[in-house]
Amino acid sequence: MNTMKNFIKLFLVLVVCASPVFAQNKIDKIDLTYGAELPDDKHAIVKIIGEVSGKIYALAMNKDDYYIRIFDSKEMKQLSMNKIIQPELEDKDVDFEDIFLLNDKLYVVGSVYNRKEKIFNLMGTQIGENGIMSPTSTKMFEAEVAKKSARGAFYFKISPDGGALLAMHTCEFSKEDAVKYQVKLFDNKLGVMFDHKEDVFFNDSKKDYEFMISDFEISYDDDVLLVINESYRDNKKKEQVEKFEIHEFMKANSYKKEVVNINLKDVEIINCKMMSTAQNTLKLVGFYSSVRESGRANKELKGVYNATMDLSSKASPVVKFNEFDLATKVKLMGERRANKGKDVKPLYAITNIIEKEDGGMIIMSEYQTIIVGKTQGLGPFSVTPITYTRNEIIITSLNPDGKVAWSNVLPKEQSATVSEIGWSTGTYSYGAGSFGVGVYKGIPLGTLGKGPEYLGSIPIYSNGKLNVVFNDNIKNKGITDIEEVRTMGNYKSSVPALFIFEENGKLSRKDPEDAVKSELVLKPGVYSRKASNELIVYSSKMKKDKLGRMVLKD
Q1: What pLDDT is attached to residue 329?
Q2: Is pLDDT larger for residue 544 or for residue 517?
Q3: Considering only CA atoms, which of 549, 502, 545, 554 is closest in space to residue 527?
Q4: Using an 8 Å Cβ cutoff, are 178 and 172 in contact?
């Protein structure tokens, strides 16, 4: 009898040990299922690129080197890891920019600056299924710039069907009072589908002058769209002049440029984000500021605006402006300031735009700051402490007509400090002087893997409800009052929290029952969305890491 009991125990142990995938956490209706423990090789995953043909592709870093890691989809065990070594261009090393999965083809994109010709090049190189780089590369951009310190930057977006890459380069020519931008659309073989280059001249001697390429987008039909915002104060007329327009390049019209003007008065546009829909519409959202009688913009956030543009029409869309209600402002700035009619500080970045089932939208705007400490040392041997803060999120739900259905605030306080070697003040700059690019880039890839990847949140929208998962201080269990929230400073000992926003905006909080004993810590800065209710996530356990799946079960 004892022999039989021992055999059963041994059998159960072998089954558990042999099982490569097991459920680790459950929060309400959200299941977190993890695969095998990853090798402890100090190669931190900084991006989950995607999943195709039974394989998960991820980008990893170790010091200054990048690696492509390939995993089995079912067991989530590592199949291979290869260092990314890009071919040189004109005897110069190519700097890593990003990596993309276009349908079933994987490409590494890198840049290199030619000092003599003042050309900023962008190169694309395919990676095979075995993770090995192709010996040949495609030159994607040869962007003319004024000088190395003003070479600008490249920005990228994947098409909704995942089969095309939209890339943009922007830079300023200060001596010419001009901004030069170039947009290109590439197919899944990096063949050029569309190419447009433009010089925009401006007069920045005007009062409070600002020029912003706020966002760019690719539609479901491979149309290319840019939103441009130019503003200044007219002293004589004592008014704010706001030039807000969409530059359209429609595939059906052979990508000929068309301009749609959006007429505004007595407001200043702070930012603008775009989202194309399957209904052939373009959604525009952002924050706006009020304007004084003198024509000077207040610069603080008055509320949220929204416009929907029919891409098959040339009509200018009507913009709906929605001021923050008192309840929302009380949560953001306190009752005293809110009752005095103060506006919200401009420290909120739009991180997510979600299309609702009724045709409306949900906008998530997170409080974000970056504090750069005092640099110790010189040049490449210097070390600079950088503190990232990711606090409360304004949740704004809009009806299909652009009016606010409800608004609420997700209470959280998060921070992480990293030490950057050889950091320069231009590393995270989105613009300089009166020119800027408003494309949201989040935390740089080179910083992920050092702590900031634990910050932020993961939204899942289903059946009219918005579910938001994030890491929280364990002492905040059950707390929904923003005034009582404690800061999550030690992210390694944080626990997952779930906030659920009902269709009417009512908020509830769910915490895992075993939160105190939980060993795995989620990394919201590194995930890939496989479906609206399923994501591939990345978590850590002490010095061990795991890939997993997060699934919302209705």
Answers
A1: 97
A2: 544
A3: 549
A4: yes
Find where tokens 């893997």 sit.
449
Task: Express each pLDDT in 417-435 by its tens digit.
Answer: 988 876 554 444 444 457 8
Distance CA 46, CA 446 (A): 8
Picking from 138, 99, 143, the residue whose alpha carbon sits closest to that of residue 121 is: 143
Tens of pLDDT along 169-187? 999 998 888 889 999 999 9
Q: Quote the tokens at residue 26.
A: 């459950």
CB 58 within 8 A of CB 67: no
Question: Residue 542 pLDDT more than 50?
Answer: yes
**Alpha-carbon span 303 to 283, nearest angstrom:** 17
Instruction: Quote the pTM value.
Output: 0.91
Residues 6+ apart with CB under 8 A from 500: 28, 465, 466, 467, 468, 507, 508, 509, 510
Any idea where the domains of the chain sit in the sequence?
Answer: 84-201
Q: What does the block give as tokens for 546?
A: 């795991």
The DSSP-derived string for 272-341 is -EEEE-TTSEEEEEEEEEEB-TTS-B--SB-EEEEEEEETT--PPPPPEEEEPPHHHHHHHH-HHHHHTT
Pairing of strands 521-531, 534-541: antiparallel
222/250 Cα distance (integer angstroms):
8
